[in-house]
Design a protein that fits this description.
With 433 residues, this protein is α/β, with parallel strands linked by helices. The protein contains 16 helices and 17 strands. The radius of gyration is 22 Å and the shape is globular.
Length: 433
């Protein structure tokens, strides 16, 4: 092996000598490629995008021995492999996926690779909303108890990229999306948590049942010694408890705790961590970047970055937690959801909606006649328009209800662009004062 390896890893020779192709060179694909190369696998990488980001990631591959193609998928990169590792953004309709199926090549995800090697127990968190906040809080609660926690997955740092540091006495808190769960084979979390289930990702799934089947894979391989934590107030999830082989624990919001906090308490109880430690973490928690993040106040107009709100329910939650009138910036890549369910909160809280991105027409169709509407060609323009329309005491809220991939690499980039645009606006107003 060329690089130092964490000898605490399980199954350290599992991928040694295997021929593996990774489809997709985003963060998880890059981390997986470098890890598998370190473990002695023959690694090739294929991404159908050839742009500044994929070329930047290509430059971060550890060795020129990792064969790479950008801008296409070639059948030669798929045939004859021992494994195909699919990045979360790659759907079953992708040609590389189809070739692998035709050749009966096992298709797994990056989190599957990492879970095979991980020496520590895994706490996996999924749901339609609230995953990042909940996973973050679980990690903080574990650390408050004196243990080490690695919070990774869909939350930011790829699981494969953390394995060099993980020991058996640690915990992994893994945020997992339905996309990551689709190709699960042996993935086995000690604790699986499903926060909620609502209409989402119908641009990828043909119906809600198909979306639910992907979510259910989080507990597919659990046994009697494992735990499945479910929201008792979600009728769909309550029924899932009947399908589990693991021990089912239900949670619900109560006693001044929101559902995310109640879920954290349930996980902490399983781990033997007391309620007081959890409450202290909740009191000290300042939130996460891009989720109801207070950015600035300009002439008594507040700007809030809620770029991570990629569902209608997330935006509704944001509106419920803002007391002032709102100028809402929304739009992006449509996920096949029903925007009509937010009409009542819009009428109650929002003065005007500024639409951006590919979903502008669909949002316009859903909202026209119910709320004042405007459009912007860029997020920077939307920030300027929103400030112009706002009155002192109002709040400009970026809570898109849509994915970011039409205009940005991810929701983080969208949030950073928003914050940068607000910063530019603040400097303009200060210089004009």
């Amino acid at each position: 092996m060329t690089f130092d390896i964490n000898l605490s890893m399980k199954n350290i020779n599992y991928f040694n000598g295997k021929r593996i192709t990774i489809i997709g060179l985003a963060r998880s694909g890059l981390a997986c490629a470098n890890l598998l190369f370190d473990l002695g696998a023959s690694v090739t990488v294929s991404d159908n995008q050839d742009n500044a980001q994929t070329r930047l990631n290509a430059a971060k591959l550890k060795s020129q021995e990792i064969e790479l193609e950008l801008g296409r998928h070639s059948e030669d990169f798929v045939r004859g492999r021992d494994f195909i590792i699919i990045s979360p953004g790659v759907s079953e309709k992708n040609q590389a996926f189809i070739w692998a199926r035709q050749s009966n090549i096992p298709i797994i995800s990056e989190i599957e690779v990492a879970s095979i090697l991980c020496p520590a127990p895994i706490i996996a968190v999924t749901g339609s909303n609230g995953k990042t906040t909940t996973a973050t809080l679980i990690g903080k609660v574990i650390e408050a108890s004196g243990k080490k926690a690695f919070v990774c997955g869909n939350i930011g740092n790829p699981f494969c990229g953390e394995l060099e540091k993980i020991e058996a006495a640690d915990f992994v808190v893994l945020e997992v999306s339905s996309f990551q769960l689709e190709t699960i084979q042996s993935f086995h979390p000690k604790i699986a948590l499903i926060l909620n289930f609502s209409r989402n990702h119908l641009d990828r799934y043909s119906n809600m049942q198909e979306y639910l089947e992907a979510k259910k894979k989080i507990f597919m391989n659990q046994g009697k010694g494992d735990f499945l934590v479910l929201n008792s107030e979600d009728s769909v999830l309550k029924e899932l408890g009947k399908e589990a082989r693991s021990k089912v624990v239900f949670f619900k919001a109560e006693n001044n705790l929101n559902p995310n906090q109640a879920a954290v308490l349930s996980v902490a109880s399983i781990l033997g961590i007391g309620k007081e430690a959890c409450l202290q973490v909740f009191n000290e928690f300042k939130g996460i970047e891009h989720r109801m993040e207070q950015v600035a106040e300009i002439n008594n107009v507040r700007f809030i970055n809620d770029s991570k709100a990629t569902t209608v329910e997330s935006c509704m939650w944001a509106l419920d937690n803002i007391s002032s009138p709102v100028i809402l910036i929304a739009g992006g890549k449509d996920k096949g959801v029903d925007y009509n369910i937010i009409l009542e909160p819009l009428r109650r809280k929002v003065k005007e909606v500024i639409l951006i991105g590919e979903a502008k027409k669909k949002l316009d169709s859903a909202f026209r006649g119910h709320i004042a509407l405007d459009e912007a060609n860029s997020l920077e323009e939307a920030v300027q328009r929103a400030y112009f329309k706002a009155s002192p005491g109002d709040c400009v809220l970026l809570s898109p209800m849509c994915a970011s991939f039409d205009m940005f690499a991810n929701y983080e980039e969208r949030g950073r662009v928003f914050k940068r645009a607000v910063s530019v606006l603040a400097k303009e107003k200060k210089s004009n004062a």
